[in-house]
From TrEMBL:
<feature type="domain" description="DNA polymerase III delta subunit-like C-terminal">
    <location>
        <begin position="221"/>
        <end position="341"/>
    </location>
</feature>
<keyword id="KW-0548">Nucleotidyltransferase</keyword>
<dbReference type="InterPro" id="IPR010372">
    <property type="entry name" value="DNA_pol3_delta_N"/>
</dbReference>
<dbReference type="GO" id="GO:0003887">
    <property type="term" value="F:DNA-directed DNA polymerase activity"/>
</dbReference>
<dbReference type="InterPro" id="IPR027417">
    <property type="entry name" value="P-loop_NTPase"/>
</dbReference>
<dbReference type="InterPro" id="IPR048466">
    <property type="entry name" value="DNA_pol3_delta-like_C"/>
</dbReference>
<comment type="similarity">
    <text>Belongs to the DNA polymerase HolA subunit family.</text>
</comment>
<dbReference type="InterPro" id="IPR008921">
    <property type="entry name" value="DNA_pol3_clamp-load_cplx_C"/>
</dbReference>
<protein>
    <recommendedName>
        <fullName>DNA polymerase III subunit delta</fullName>
        <ecNumber>2.7.7.7</ecNumber>
    </recommendedName>
</protein>
<keyword id="KW-0239">DNA-directed DNA polymerase</keyword>
<feature type="domain" description="DNA polymerase III delta N-terminal">
    <location>
        <begin position="20"/>
        <end position="148"/>
    </location>
</feature>
<dbReference type="InterPro" id="IPR005790">
    <property type="entry name" value="DNA_polIII_delta"/>
</dbReference>
<dbReference type="Pfam" id="PF06144">
    <property type="entry name" value="DNA_pol3_delta"/>
</dbReference>
<dbReference type="Pfam" id="PF21694">
    <property type="entry name" value="DNA_pol3_delta_C"/>
</dbReference>
<keyword id="KW-0235">DNA replication</keyword>
<keyword id="KW-0808">Transferase</keyword>
Length: 344
């Protein structure tokens, strides 16, 4: 099994297999790389004659696919046959495809694909938590299985930069990195939608850091605010539920941790300033809190902790961050333990 990076390297070097199975949760990424493969294999002048595709979710007879594969290409060395959304490549349980029961027959055929044909399947995971099953691993011995995991780091930045360039938008490198850090974990289709929103929001001008913060940080801060609110109410069940919602929506673990620590720090400062006799207006100005409603809620939150408890919570956040950077730990588990310890 190879990843998208290895697939692109092989494609660039002209190393093309006769059969591929792309699998993953990011359909945009899968489709994009299949398009690259088809473009490399079949000339655009003869694409209509040498390219056949089938909907794997409604395909009733694999013989139709075999016939397409066996038919010789026209005025070309190769032809491509694509079966998209090949649900029968998943595990037997819950699979509604009529071809699920013919998996052995399909597997046997894949071992002897004609030289003139490039047969491509793609199997879409139901959620980002899914992994390749037994069937996919059994195919990996005989065909090229490409795991289309979400791209990140410089690869993600370069791809997102393309999205902005296609829309004629300029964004500084450092601001691009901030945007990508907030988006990491989402699929490319969702990220492109967010790029479109940001471009519409900044119509007629270049994108600034402030635009990204106003559009994307505000919602994330509200979610973190809710997590800390559940902690202040000693409601562990709600706190863990909200944490999981944040993670599954694509928020990065490190970002969540930093924002929780920041929220506890604000509560500590509010409580300290109140105990030192500072007034509401002065505190809001010192801590740059613009909303009176938010200030009032945070005051109520701060009253549910002692200064000692808030200091302990901040230290727990810092210790968790240090441990995650120093050791190979399950980051989600560490965050859950943090919430448990702050409530205890």
């Amino acid at each position: 099994m190879i990843d998208i990076t290895a697939f692109n390297r092989n494609l660039k070097n002209g190393h093309i297999e006769n059969c591929y199975l792309f699998c993953g949760s990011d359909e945009f990424l899968i489709k994009e790389n299949i398009r690259k493969l088809i473009k490399r294999v079949v000339k655009s002048d003869f694409i209509d004659l040498n390219y056949a595709k089938f909907d794997g979710s409604s395909l009733e007879d694999f013989d139709t696919v075999i016939n397409a594969c066996e038919t010789l290409p026209f005025m070309s060395d190769k032809k491509v046959v694509l079966i998209y959304r090949a649900s029968f490549m998943g595990e037997e349980k819950g699979c509604k495809s009529k071809l699920s029961g013919e998996f052995k027959k399909i597997h046997d055929y894949l071992k002897n694909i004609p030289e003139h044909c490039v047969l491509i399947f793609y199997y879409l995971f139901k959620s980002k938590r899914d992994k390749p099953g037994r069937r996919i691993y059994s195919l990996d011995k005989d065909i090229c299985v490409v795991r289309a995991d979400k791209i990140k780091g410089y690869q993600l930045e370069n791809k997102v930069q393309e999205f902005f360039q296609l829309r004629g938008k300029n964004i500084k490198k450092i601001d691009l990195r901030v945007f990508c850090n907030l988006m990491e974990g989402n699929n490319l289709s969702a990220i492109e939608n967010e790029v479109e929103k940001l471009c519409c929001y900044t119509y007629g001008r270049d994108i600034k850091r402030k635009d990204i913060q106003e559009m994307f940080l505000k919602n994330s801060e509200e979610d973190i605010f809710d997590v800390v609110n559940a902690i202040s109410n000693k409601n562990l069940k709600d706190a863990l539920h909200l944490l999981n919602e944040l993670i599954y929506s694509g928020a990065k673990i490190n970002y969540i941790l930093v924002m929780i620590e920041r929220q506890f720090s604000i509560l500590f400062k509010i409580k300290l300033l109140l105990e030192n006799g500072k007034q509401k207006t002065e505190i809001m100005k010192l801590l740059n809190i613009r909303s009176q409603y938010r200030y009032n809620i945070m005051v109520q939150q701060s009253k549910k902790f002692t200064l000692k408890q808030l200091k302990k919570s901040i230290q727990l956040c810092l210790n968790t961050e240090k441990d995650m950077k120093s050791f190979s730990l399950n980051e989600k588990t560490e965050l859950e333990l943090l919430l448990i310890n702050t409530i205890a």
